[in-house]
Amino acid sequence: MAENETAEAGEITELKKKLQRVVENMLEEDDYGIEKTTEALKNLSSLAALKLKKPLLGLDETVLLEKCKCPISGEIMSDPVVLASGQTYDRPQIQNWLEEGNLTCPQSKQVLSNSVPIPNCLVRELISDWCKKHGIALPTPYQDINGETSTKLDRIYLHSLLEKLSSSSLSDQKEAAQELRRLTKTAPSCRAVLCEFTDAISKLLSPLSESKVEEDTDLQENLVTTVLNLSTHDGKTKRLIAETPRAITLLVESVKFGTIETRSNAAAALFSLSTLKSNKCMIGNSGAPGALLDLLREGHPSAIKDTAEAILSLCIAPVNREKFIEIRAVREIVLKIHTGILTDQLLAILALLSTHPNAITELAELDTMRRLLQIIRDSTSERTKENSVTVLYHMCSRDRTLLLMLGPEENEMRILAELADTGNPRARRKAGDIIKELHKAFPAKR
After folding, report:
1. 282 closest CA partner among 320, 327, 228, 325
2. Which long-range contacts (CB under 8 A, 24 or more apart) does 288-293 make?
3. Which of 280, 272, 270 is nearest to 321 (CA)?
4. Helices 425-441 and 382-398, axial angle in degrees (round to 10)
5. Residue environment code for 166-200, b if the CB has 16+ CB neighbours within 10 A, otherwise e
6. DSSP3 helix / strand / coil % (the chain, rounded to 5)
7. Helix-then-strand count for the chain, H and E
8. Residue 409: how many other CB atoms lie within 10 Å
9. pLDDT confidence bin for 146, thresholds 50/70/90
């Protein structure tokens, strides 16, 4: 608790310093523009949200509940935004107020210097946490009559953050990157708006250098994670990211270098992008197979799942299987399977790679057959059994020596015979096909 309070105090101090700098700049300039105003409002919003967090740490939660309600509607806010007055409202309520021609803050009665509602992401997070804790459904996000969850005002704010990434000040870049990461995680509307800017991805990645992508690890982590968040939006966004010059290259470099969270998120972003069929070959030709295999080999617990999913998705394209086989991915995956790590996902990859003739030699050398039979016998996962027998089928279909080796094993343990009776339809079919070939090879065993 003491550590949390110390960290919170430090964050408040830092926010106050940022707010002070912005306000001083505004006072020195006659025409300071909307960007400075939105930045000041963001800092005020963050300070207010930190104050509101205290009830979550064990203080009066009834106070938190009241603060999460819109002053206009009295209901829990679905899309909290903050005005120039520093007051937070639910977007649909305050937009109606402003569209009626009102120029003042409903609560403070202060004349507004501008009518730009800024998303209050921290308050939104507090509302989300409170609802989850109490088993209450989150309020449905507001949609206007055109079905849009964002406005021109959101675009102004997000555009200002993208422009800030081009600043010569590293602290400005890091602040903008952190805010974009938070917005793209918590607000689907912000993901949609950012994707409307044709140069958004280029500007987003502009602070990163291909030659030393991890020059500032915090900045790299926030930017890579923002790309990951955006990549989950829709197919059009996946295509936009993949076709942006340097985007795939920087993600591949971030799989190699950076914090383990950055590397894992870069792998997750490559997986997300590769779910679009047209991106698979592009990613496969970018050097991603080698980078992902190296990360898989390291076996870091927080990165291995995202890495395996990225490899599996890429291997759906036959041309990428060839690339993974050339860099001896079969060996690495079999060795990982022998350790019992992430068996389901790795066997799914192996099932795809085993369709390539060059994979069979390595599979035979690694004494894979006995391990696969053991997995079929011991596993409770239908998917795992199916992928294991699929690999066995491909091995025996391409190498009769392996089939002859399998005969005595099956005659003794009857593992495939049992799978042919109890497995899922595909597993039963594969097991049955192997048994038929065994009967042909060993007619006396019928």
Report:
1. 320
2. 288/248, 288/251, 288/252, 288/255, 288/314, 289/314, 289/320, 289/323, 289/324, 289/327, 289/329, 290/327, 291/252, 291/253, 291/255, 291/256, 292/255, 292/267, 293/324, 293/327, 293/329, 293/332
3. 280
4. 30
5. eeeeeebbbbbbbbbbbbbbbbebbbbbbbebeeb
6. 70, 5, 25
7. 25, 3
8. 14
9. very low
251 to 156, 180, 265, 321: CA distances (angstroms):
27, 17, 9, 20
Contact 110, 83 (CB under 8 A): no
For 308: left if phi > 0, alpha if psi spans -120 to 50, otherwise beta; the answer is alpha
Asked if 247 and 201 touch (Cβ cutoff 8 Å), the reply is yes
pTM assigned to the model: 0.74
Note the pLDDT tens digit of each residue in 265-275.
999 999 999 99
Least confident of 31-35, 236-240, 298-302, 373-377: 31-35
- Separation CA 287–CA 323 (nearest Å): 10
Q: Which amino acid is at 227?
A: V
* HSE (side-chain half, CA atoms, 13 Å) at 418: 12
List pLDDT tens digits, range 176-232: 999 899 888 877 778 888 888 889 999 999 999 888 888 999 999 999 999 999 999
∠ Cα 219 229 165 (to 5°): 35
Query: How far apart, in whole angstroms, are the C-alpha atoms of residue 335 and residue 347?
Result: 11
- C-beta contacts of 46-51 below 8 A and 24+ residues apart: 46/15, 46/122, 47/12, 47/15, 47/16, 47/19, 48/82, 48/86, 48/88, 48/120, 48/122, 48/123, 49/120, 49/122, 49/123, 49/125, 49/126, 50/8, 50/11, 50/12, 50/15, 50/122
Q: Examine the pLDDT at 149 and tell me if it is beyond 50.
A: no
Structure tokens at 177: 């990157």
Element (H, E) at 119: strand 118-119
Block residue for tokens 């343990």: 413
Residue 103: CB partners within 8 Å, gap ≥ 6? 111, 112, 115
CA distances, 424 to each of 189, 344, 389 (Å): 42, 15, 11
Distance set, CA 107 to CA 47, 110, 127 (Å): 19, 8, 21
pLDDT above 70 coverage of the chain, percent: 85
Most confident of 37-41, 171-175, 349-353: 349-353
**Closest C-alpha to 397, from 347, 440, 365:** 440
Convert the pLDDT of each residue in 111-127 to its tens digit.
Answer: 887 777 777 877 887 88
